[in-house]
Amino acid sequence: MSNCHGSHAHGNCKPTGLCPIVTFPEVVNIDEIRDEAPEVKTFYMSFLNKDVEREFRIKSGQFIMCTVFGAGEFAVSLPPSPENDRFHISVRAVGKVTHALHALKPGDKLGVRGPFGNGFPFEEIKGKNIIYVAGGIGLIPLRSSIVHALQHREDFGRIILLYGARSSRDLMYQPDIQIWKQNAGFETFITIDRPEAGWDGEVGYVHQLIDKANVPIDNSVAFVCGPPVMFNSVIGEFLKRGMSEDAIVSTLERQMKCGIGKCQHCAIGRTLVCTDGPVYTYRQIKTLGEQI
Amino acid sequence: MSMYILSSHEIKQLAEELRASHDVYGPQVDPQTQQVFFDQLGDVDALNLEAPIPSMPVKEILFPQMEQVLKYKYDAETQNVEMAKPYVEKPKVLFGLRPCDLSGIQVLDRFFLGQEFVDDVYLTHRRQCLLISNTCLNPFPQCFCVCTHSGPDADEGYDLDLTKLQDGYLVKVGSEKGQALADAHDWKPAQAHHLSEQKAVVDRCIDLFPEMATDNKAWVARVMNRITTGFVKSETWEYIGDQCFECGACSFVCPTCSCFNVEDARMCDGECERLRTHDSCSFEGYARMAGDHNPRQPVEDRRNKRFFCKLSYPQSKKYLRPGCVGCGRCQWVCPGDIGLPNVVQYIRREITE
């Protein structure tokens, strides 16, 4: 088997010492399953091989390939690193494999390969304000990044989360948001699309929150993730206010089969989402020349 | 670099000898259909070094059409999983590769082994593999390798290279593995006149292209710049896309196409296998994601992608050469009229209009 297990003797070992699991899935145990939102569940898991668990580091923004035994493999974005937090993925049941995943129970096993991809450019944005803009389950890929930013709070200016969902039931990670709010200087603005009984917060679309939050444009970066309609309107608002195209960052998704740049299913224009992405700036996305 | 001169008999002997320790593959002509296959040799006498280029590219041996890449058994009761690696390393000899197929293997090497990650499955097949190429003495009707710099003779990447001359086969050594093989034999060293004779043979073959290789012409270098910079009109891409039947044949016969799909399937004994199969970017479901979002819906988008892959600079940087090796197989199999040489012609026509 060619997985590294700390021996660093394989062609896929990285000089940084962060060796991804490339070929053979490592088995993880599902410890706990939590309902997050309608059709969205969070799976907390741990590696059976504790050596692998110690070696396993995820940069915020990367993804893993997750095997549901008997059903197949899918790419899932950005679980936080096990060192910081419990290792977990949040998945909406959409296709064949994710439905099979939702049918599992605690104690069942999954396979994990990875981590793959480039990750968020935290080194380059030190000292800047971070604006997170998420729509619906778009908060999943941003979650690990928020955790990272709060852990290195002193490195950044204002940290703002603008979050919108269809209804209050669709809001993800509510307990986490309550915990994050207790951090000094973490500003949260949440909205739902339509008025609802018992909801006393904002109603409307996410891009309308930009003014409400009095978002700083200079010396800021925006991490945007959500459905295409929301993505386009939010980016339109930011560009109108004079934000640079390089300061708008998003993560893209594609069908992936290998995760290591070989199967080519995730090609957009001249890049491969798995090795060149999944994190792109808006300037890069614009020049890809394909539908997102 | 040493050179030797071997008789036809010695060549056969070499193949026979390698068969003891290796799986030897070589071109064979089916006696009934006259079709050429590059298959494992059951009998050395079946090896036909004068046969035209094989119908299927040699990539099949290193990157099979369908292959198990993982086997596992999951017991839902005990929640226990067992995994095994089903592919194995075997010493192989590819005997009598046409230069275009050899270039195809080099492209695959650079793509699978030379990028950020190494593909373990390909590496396993490729690791103990001896490449023996064979110079083309005359072009075949569909060839255009002179346009893509991959023939009619091989200039790199081989362990041994054969050229048929008057006195027998000129054997050029191209690697340490090849030299070790030569050192183990008492082969007759070649003379200077053999080398000049080889050059004459290659020149004669190139001269024969206008007369014999009449099916295809593709001035690839001329259109690469245009495709890379996006100067090809969308009407031209639509014209090309309209002729695509989405059969995927061009990808399957292409020596450099390497897209694959991965599927898990349950076998009858409860075990599961992970299969890796060839895929084609012309298929409608190629980029479709769960939830039916398909970012590459129109057919011309997908066609466009394949020719970008073959003929654009960013991709050539990965391959260190154009992605087309000039074998002409895609033109053979295409039920429309959009084999790569024709696409190059369409784009050229657009330039001259």
From TrEMBL, chain A:
Stored PROSITE patterns: FAD_FR
Gene Ontology process terms (BP): pyrimidine nucleotide biosynthetic process
Gene Ontology MF terms: 2 iron, 2 sulfur cluster binding; flavin adenine dinucleotide binding; metal ion binding; oxidoreductase activity
Co-factor binding comment: Binds 1 [2Fe-2S] cluster per subunit.
InterPro entries: Cyt_c3_hydrogenase_gsu (IPR012165), Dihydroorotate_DH_ele_sf (IPR037117), Dihydroorotate_DH_Fe-S-bd (IPR019480), FAD-bd_FR_type (IPR017927), FNR_nucleotide-bd (IPR039261), OxRdtase_FAD/NAD-bd (IPR001433), PyrK_electron_transfer (IPR050353), Riboflavin_synthase-like_b-brl (IPR017938)
Cofactor dependence: [2Fe-2S] cluster
Domain of life of the native organism: Bacteria
Binding-site residues, [2Fe-2S] cluster: 258, 263, 266, 274
Keywords from the UniProt entry: 2Fe-2S, Electron transport, FAD, Flavoprotein, Iron, Iron-sulfur, Metal-binding, Transport
SUPFAM superfamilies with a match to the protein in the record: Ferredoxin reductase-like, C-terminal NADP-linked domain, Riboflavin synthase domain-like
Pfam family, one: NAD_binding_1
Transmembrane parts of this sequence: none
Domain FAD-binding FR-type: 23-122
Record's protein name: FAD-binding FR-type domain-containing protein
